[in-house]
Amino acid sequence: MDELHKLLRRLFDREEADVDAEWQLTEAAGLGMAAAGVRFIRPVQKNNRRLYEFEVLDGVVPPNGQLHLRKVDETGTEQVLRRRLRMLTTLSTQSELAHMLADPRGRLRTYQDDPLVEDDHFHNPAELKAVLSVLGMLSPAPKKPTEPSTLAVLSPYNEQAERLGRAIEDGLQSSLTNIAGFTPGNQRSGIRKHG
Question: What is the distance between the alpha carbons of residues 169 and 177, in angstroms, rounded to a whole number?
Fold first, then answer.
């Protein structure tokens, strides 16, 4: 039994076949070449051959001896294919986008240069002076004896955080002795940097 016969038997002889489906007969196998709309009627035996009878619903059956049968609901697929073909045609003019789609990770770069060094302009002496002044006015006030007061001084710039940290460490020995009773915000002694 050849493949076409198996396919037709599966489509039209079994009980699960969609007998109400509409079909198209076309002269060419390409998309959009509908010549006549047809509906399956029944399988018949003629001259020891199994034939499948269809009724013409609209259009004219072409005189061509070789026709192609296609289910009508494939027109949605046809529209999707046409839209994708238009997008591919447009994509052919966008070489950079085409390369990125073909190899998304190909444009990623790894840099082996020296690490980024921040400029001194990420240091604000006025801010440093203001922070030290505010810290000089603070004193720990624990909620409970078992919950020590915490203190964190944050800066988004590494250079500023480094300078704040050094100034606070130096001040703990002189002008900032009032904050010695605070627990650092990161639960360990030392300076915590954010950046």
Answer: 10
Q: With pLDDT > 70 as the criterion, what percentage of the chain qualifies? A: 72
- Domain boundaries of the chain, sorted by first residue: 3-72, 120-184
List strand residue ranges (DSSP E) for 28-174, in order.
34-46, 49-59, 68-71, 150-151
Q: Look up residue 80 and give its two tokens.
A: 């999707």
Q: In 3D, which of 59, 54, 57 has the Cα closest to residue 43? A: 54
pTM for this entry: 0.35
Q: Amino acid identity, residue 55?
A: E
pLDDT in tens, 134-154: 998 988 887 777 788 888 888
pLDDT tens sequence across 150-167: 888 888 888 888 888 899
Question: Which is more confidently placed, 42 or 109?
Answer: 42
Residue 160's SS3 state is helix
Query: Residue holding tokens 């619903």?
Result: 57
Cα–Cα dist 159/164, whole Å:
9
Q: Give 80's contacts (C-beta < 8 A, 6+ positions apart).
A: none
Question: Which token pair is 130?
Answer: 């203001």
